[in-house]
Amino acid sequence: MHTTDPQPAGYEKRDATIRPLVESGVLLVVLCLVTFWSMIYLHHWLQSFEQKKEPFGNALTAAREVPPAPLLETAAHMPLNWAETKELEKPLFKQSGLSDVRANERTYLETYDWVDEQAKIVHIPIQQAMQRLLEQGLPTRK
Question: How far apart are CA 33 and CA 35, in angstroms?
Answer without folding.
Answer: 5
